[in-house]
């Protein structure tokens, strides 16, 4: 986490908001995280999703229960961003899904409108119901 968030324009990378960011759907290579890391995998197809090192918070709530906030994820596709009012106020969020089995996993915060929530911008929520700890680490 960096201090003094100066909210640079366009930091989200994809230039959020464009509803038709048609990316080529053909992607056959799956990303793998370093085996030494504790990783979370898709519970449905076992594709790697995130490293434990990228975990920011476990105290989020998804539609199906607990959800984790990650700094970065892999093998995850992103739908169009849309504005939603969440428990913590208005956000622009995009649904995210497993690129290997296409299961919806959670969402990405594209934009937060309240300054206290800015830390979530560009971060990913994955619901616990869709993750499994690779190799059962604890
Ligand atoms: Zn999957």
How would you describe this structure to a colleague?
- With 138 residues, the protein is mainly β.
- Helices cover 0% and strands 43% of the residues.
- The protein has a domain at 39-134: Beta Complex (Metal Binding Protein, Guanine Nucleotide Exchange Factor, Chain A), CATH 2.170.150.20.
- The strands form two sheets. It has a six-stranded antiparallel beta sheet with strand order 3-4-8-7-6-5, with no helix packed on it. A three-stranded antiparallel beta sheet has the order 2-1-9, with no helix packed on it.
Q: What attributes characterize this protein structure?
A:
138 residues; mainly beta; Metal Binding Protein, Guanine Nucleotide Exchange Factor, Chain A; 6-stranded antiparallel beta sheet; 3-stranded antiparallel beta sheet; 9 strands; 43% strand; binds zinc ion
